[in-house]
Write a structure and sequence with these properties.
The complex is a heterodimer of chains A (479) and B (298). Chain A has 479 residues and is an alpha+beta fold. Chain A folds into 4 domains: 90 residues; 110 residues, Kinase associated domain 1, KA1 (TATA-Binding Protein), CATH 3.30.310.80; 38 residues, no CATH class; 112 residues, no CATH class. Chain A has 10 helices and 21 strands. In chain A, the strands form 4 sheets. In chain A, strands 2-3-19-20-1-21 form a 6-stranded antiparallel β-sheet. In chain A, helix 1 crosses helix 5. Chain A is elongated. Chain B contains 9 helices and no strands. In chain B, helix 1 packs antiparallel against helix 5, helix 4 packs across helix 6 and helix 8 packs antiparallel against helix 9. At the A-B interface, helix 2, strand 7, strand 10, strand 18 and helix 9 of A face helix 2, helix 7 and helix 8 of B.
Chain lengths: 479, 298
């Protein structure tokens, strides 16, 4: 940018850095740019939303050439993409800069508004009115101020020559509502980053009945599932899943209680949520010498490769160099025949052993009924009893207080902005032709609500000064 | 009274509301025709007088239309209340309950709008939108009228009720802003003395958004709180979640364009008409989205 110069004087250029900083600042201040950023982010969100629907898949039916594009669409994880993060970051910077940039103007308008006005303002404002009074201008102005104040307006006056300028406004602090709202938008992002950086979330945390599992993540917490209960209504829909658990910190029991969906268990910010459940089996394994190699409940958290509805479990026994694979029958009503030719029945499980590391089968698999022992891969495997496992989600999110504070600020900011609109009225009281003339008009360009408020306030003014006369052009229908 | 009787009464209430909505559509059209024929008798007076008397002049057909809307609101309210009494929870177990609640809140919103601004011709647009929703409810299989209970994930009564109530309020407010915006576009092209002023319609559309936008925000916040309590994650990028966020941003764009860029008139009205597509997209999203809201489909 070149400073304005008179002929012959030296050109003085701003340093490049200042120019860049100035332009960058102006870019981020621009409402137009902010609007484009909002629209671009909204489009990205729409693309991501549609990806979660069946709609894009329908497109190639009408335009087959779109097939590759639709395939790429489904492959594009919008919400975890760089462009999405960058747009969010850009918008956050824009919100920050834009908001900071608006502070001086808004503050000035609130604290030190311009009181003096011109006759031209009343000629172009609508609806602008005139009142006349035989009283002196000072007395009329005093009464006008009193009427406006009685209607909760703040009133400022300024005398210029023989004229008295009046500026009245109410709900001026409502203009500040934009700040908590936009601050909250930034806090939402901060809360999200804090949660992602310093928190953790384990979406699949399975524990079988009777078993205890470490939470990890440096928490020193262990969770024991005592019992899992599921109940159903008459038509077979599930009504409750409940896990009775004990939480230990080190060896110390710190919590004991029941977990249901919507009623999680929280300890020191770590929360356990009920998510799902499944079958488990109490297993005891002895080696050839009769030593117990394994005795615990095993969650059947996998499914069989040959039958996707048959629950499966894996027990690794590194000391014996064996991996045990266990299967339950598929008990669904529409079940296919059981795994291969085994004909596994309810109350039985199928066990087979593989060599750890190589995955080579160690002999044939066997069917074991509940309570029985069978030899599998050189080990005695006892199916003690059927049990359940619970599937929990474990989460620790230190960003939550920030997010919820942001949510409250968002609501407060919007409520202030929308439900306490800033209303402004200007008046000019002047002497002329042996009487005092008062011109009044709202600052309400194309704002019907503000005009209606003005007309309502006018009723009180007319009650004192008589019917008002309209100045300027008509303000009705279709203008 | 047994729950099944309450459910049946609720169903009768909705049936009565449906008939009343259908009748109201007819009456509002009749009223518009009446106003159009007699508008030359309506004198606007000077402009200041028109500021004081912006309400649509009273007509017999108008009174009939307004009374019918009041009745429809009452019946729909009864349908929602009786069902809540029978099931012991808010209207959120499926699209039937949700849509009946939408019909009630949209009617109530329209009723309040008409009382506050005293303008009736918006009814010609708003009531058919509500009738469309009534028709959708009737297109659902009759089995939805029974209480089918709740899956465990939906069993948090207070937050779920508030979450879904916010949704209903937001969508109803956006529907009214859509109706005002459509009428704006009509008035901008075809101004008539019996129609509300374009400026007033711009205001009504804006005011409806100032109800819908915070309600949509509450919907998102309460959904997050609930997801945090039920699933351990306050935000899952679930399609219905992101669709609601998208809708919120679309209306956020409108508010910025209007308040900071001075968008008024045809441009902002056209924007609101298009924006309403986002609401429809989100509302019926259960039909084409998978994810965490899939179970709340029909």
């Amino acid at each position: 940018m070149v400073d304005a110069v008179a002929g012959g004087t030296k050109h003085r250029r701003k340093p490049l850095l200042a120019v860049v900083a100035d332009r960058t600042w102006r870019f981020f201040c621009s409402v137009r740019a902010a609007l484009y950023e909002i629209i671009f982010l909204a489009v990205l969100i729409l693309v991501g939303t549609l990806r979660g629907s069946v709609l894009p898949a329908q497109m190639p039916r009408f335009v087959p050439a779109l097939e590759p594009l639709v395939a790429r669409w489904y492959a594009f994880d919008v919400f975890h993409s760089l462009i999405f993060s960058m747009t969010l970051a850009l918008l956050t910077v824009a919100i920050t800069v834009c908001t900071i940039n608006r502070v001086p103007g808004i503050w000035q308008a609130l604290v030190h508004p311009t009181v003096a006005t011109t006759r031209q303002f009343f000629r172009s404002a609508e609806p602008a009115i005139v009142e006349r009074s035989p009283d002196a201008p000072e007395a009329v102005a005093r009464e006008l101020v009193a009427i406006l104040r009685s209607r909760r307006y703040r009133v400022l006056t300024e005398q210029r020559g023989g004229d008295i300028h009046v500026y009245a406004d109410k709900n001026r602090w409502g203009k500040l509502g934009t700040f908590p709202f936009h601050l909250a938008l930034i806090l939402l992002l901060v809360g999200g980053i804090v949660g992602a950086q310093f928190g953790f979330r384990e979406p699949v945390f399975t524990v079988a009945e009777g078993a205890t599992r470490d939470v990890g993540e440096g928490t020193h917490l262990r969770l024991k599932l005592e019992r899992f209960v599921d109940s159903y209504n008459q038509i077979g829909s599930p009504t409750e899943y409940r896990s009775d658990v004990i939480l230990y910190e080190g060896d110390q029991e710190v919590r004991r209680g029941s977990l249901t969906v919507n009623n999680p268990l929280t300890y020191k910010g770590v929360t356990f949520y009920q998510a799902s459940y499944g079958q488990a089996a109490q297993i005891e394994v002895q080696d050839a010498a009769g030593n117990v190699a394994f005795a615990a409940a095993v969650p059947f958290e996998y499914v069989s490769r040959s039958n996707g509805d048959a629950p499966a479990a894996i027990v690794d026994l590194p000391a014996q160099g064996v991996r045990l694979e266990l299967f339950f029958p598929n008990l669904k009503l529409d079940a296919k025949p059981e795994i291969g030719t085994i004909k596994l029945q309810s109350g039985e499980l199928y066990a087979q052993a593989r060599e750890a590391g190589t995955n080579t089968k160690l002999g044939e698999g066997v069917v074991i009924a509940q309570g029985d022992v069978a030899r599998v891969g050189g080990l005695d495997v006892q199916f003690v009893r059927e049990r359940r496992f619970t599937l929990l989600q474990v989460a620790y999110n230190p960003g939550i207080p920030i997010l919820f504070s942001a949510a409250i600020l968002l609501v407060i900011g919007l409520a202030i902005t929308f439900y306490f609109p800033h209303r402004r009225i200007r008046a000019l009281v002047s002497a002329g032709g042996g009487e005092t003339e008062v011109m009044l008009a709202p600052l309400a360009k194309r704002d019907w609500g503000a005009k209606r408020d003005f007309v309502r306030t006018l009723s009180a003014i007319e009650a004192r000064f008589g019917p008002a006369t309209l100045l300027g052009r008509s303000s009705h229908a279709g203008d | 009274m047994p729950a099944t009787d309450l459910l049946r009464l609720s169903y009768y209430g909705f049936t009565a509301a449906s008939v009343a909505v259908l009748a109201a559509v007819v009456f509002y059209v009749m009223d518009a025709l009446w106003l159009a024929r007699t508008s030359r008798l309506v004198t606007a007076g000077d402009a200041l007088a028109s500021w004081r008397a912006y309400a649509t002049p009273p007509t017999p057909s108008g009174r009939l239309a307004s009374t019918t809307v009041a009745l429809a609101t009452l019946f729909a309210g009864l349908a929602v209340a009786l069902r809540a009494l029978a099931t012991g929870r808010g209207p959120y177990s499926d699209m039937y309950e949700f849509s009946v609640a939408f019909v009630f809140v949209a009617l109530l919103g329209y009723f309040l709008l008409e009382r506050n601004y005293g303008i009736r011709p918006i009814g010609v647009i708003a009531l058919p939108v509500i009738l469309g929703m009534v028709a959708y409810v009737w297109s659902l299989p009759p089995s939805v009228r029974e209480d089918r209970g709740l899956i465990p994930a939906l069993s948090n009564n207070v937050i779920m009720t508030a979450h879904v109530s916010s949704a209903v309020i937001a969508y109803a407010a956006f529907a009214l802003s859509f109706a005002a915006a459509v009428l704006y576009l009509v008035v901008a092209r075809w101004p008539r003395a019996w129609l509300p002023s374009a400026e007033l319609l711009d205001e009504v559309a804006f005011r409806a958004v100032t109800i819908g936008f915070p309600a949509q925000l509450l919907l998102l916040i309460l959904g997050s709180v609930w997801a945090h309590m039920a699933w351990g994650g306050y935000w899952s990028w679930d399609p219905k979640e992101t669709a609601a966020l998208f809708t919120w941003m679309v209306y956020g764009g409108y508010l910025h364009a209007r308040t900071l860029r001075g968008w008024r008139g045809t441009r902002s009205a056209a924007y609101l008409v298009v924006a309403f597509l986002a609401v429809v997209f989100t509302y019926f999203g259960n039909y084409w989205f998978g994810g965490l809201h899939a179970y709340s489909g029909v």
